[in-house]
Amino acid sequence: MREIAVRMFINEKFAGSYGNMVFNRAAYNGSIELHNPMQKYLVDFYSYIHWENRAQTQEQIDIVNELINTDLPKAPNILMSWILHWDRDAKIKQTVPGFCAYLPDSGEMHLRIGDEQRGTKGSWDLPVRHCKNAGPKLPVFIATNVDLTVWQ
Q: Looking at the record's lineage, which domain of life comes first (predicted)?
C-alpha cells in the first residue's frame, strides 16, 4: 500500500464572506501527500449537506448517489471533501474522482482517490490524531499510514 499523509489545518476564512451572500463554509483545509510516485492533493472539509451541494461533475454526482445507500451520510458531525490534484509546477488545481470523509467523533478518515491519469487509485482508512503543536501554518490533525519521522 502506498505511503500517505493527510494534514488538516483550521480554515482561517471559515464563515467569512468572499462575495455578496457567498460564504466560506469549509471548516478545515488540508493536503494529501502520496509517495512513489509523489502526488499532492488538496481538500476542503464541509458538512455533508454543503459537500453534497458542491458536486459538479457527473463522477461527483455518482459518488453522492452511491453514498446515499450507506451509513456515511448519517454519521454525526461528519465532514466531507472533494479532492483536487495540485500540480506544483503549473500551479493548477484539477478535480479528480474521489472523496475524503472525516469522522471527528470516532477519529477516523476514509479516503478514496480514482486519479487514473496519474496512476493514483485506491482507498485508505486512516486513524486521525491531534497534533501537539497546532498553530498558524501548522496542522491541527494528521492522518497517515506511515511513520512521518522517516518520511522522505
A: Bacteria
The size of the chain, in residues, is 152
CA–CA distance from 86 to each of 6, 8, 79, 107, 145 (Å)?
14, 16, 21, 26, 21
List the one residue out of 45, 135, 126 whose CA is nearest residue 83: 45
Is the backbone of residue 71 left (phi > 0), alpha (psi -120 to 50) or beta?
alpha
- Give, for 62, the enclosing helix (H) or strand (E): helix 58-68
For residue 95, give its domain range: 4-150
Provide Rg for the chain, Cα atoms.
15
The count of domains in the chain is 1
Cβ contact 100:80 at 8 Å: yes
Those residues with Cβ within 8 angstroms of residue 58's Cβ, 6 or more apart along the chain or in another chain: none
Mean pLDDT per block of 10 residues along the chain (152 residues) reads: 87 51 67 90 92 93 95 92 92 93 94 92 93 77 80 58
